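FAQ: What does the model actually see?

It sees only this:
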Amino acid sequence: MSRNLILGGLLSALVVLAALTSFLWTPYDHAAMNIPAKLQTPGAAHWFGTDHFGRDMFSMIMVGARTSIAVALLAVGIGMGLGVPLGLAAAARRGTWADEVIMRGNDLVFAFPSLVIAILITAVFGPGAVNAIIAIGIFNIPVFARVTRGAALSLWERDFILAARVAGKGAARISAEHILPNVANLLIVQGTIQFSLGILAEAGLSYVGLGAQPPTPSWGRMLADAQTMVSFAPHMALIPGVAIILTVLGLNLMGDGMRDWLDPRLRGRGG
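And it is asked to produce this:
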């Protein structure tokens, strides 16, 4: 097992543990304001200091972790749940009008980044975590569709697929029973990568006010609140920034390690 997988797994597990613990315990109420204690630097009373409203930042980081994880996880679920079947269908109908429609639809979605999609959605339904999930999820659909189609196309030329066709199996059954299990490893790795990108996207949307709304803590909005106070309260920006960096780094390392671990050709490289 590679060092990347171990280190990435530990960092990711730490974030997940903080998120799960926040359901049962936080040092302070994350929404409780204490103006006399505002802008305190990290210390014994407040491990990560306090913000401009006197809220405990350690508690906010813990609750913000579950916000980021929930948004990214659901968005990846949407992308994978819709993108994988589309990719399998496109590969099974290679060269037909169905393949062309699916892939050109993917190109259309790729033309609009998740932030633009979020702006369009919030213009109609208003800002919020649910709309952020939808926006990021829509952007993930063509990613999984392309990855699935690309991996499946090579498999359709293999002898075991030909044998399945000779046995009378249809395209849908072959895709479910033979293609999908053989591309699952690749999809797991891609899901880990998209999960890390989902964390970044959620932070970016919250930074511009399109993500989770107060009083729900969000790492991106914590950064937005800190942008005018960096000179005299740098911990307000440093702590959520480090949380985002470590989370994304952990997920990327874990994805890289999983790729090496799941691919027999790379398993012997070490490192």
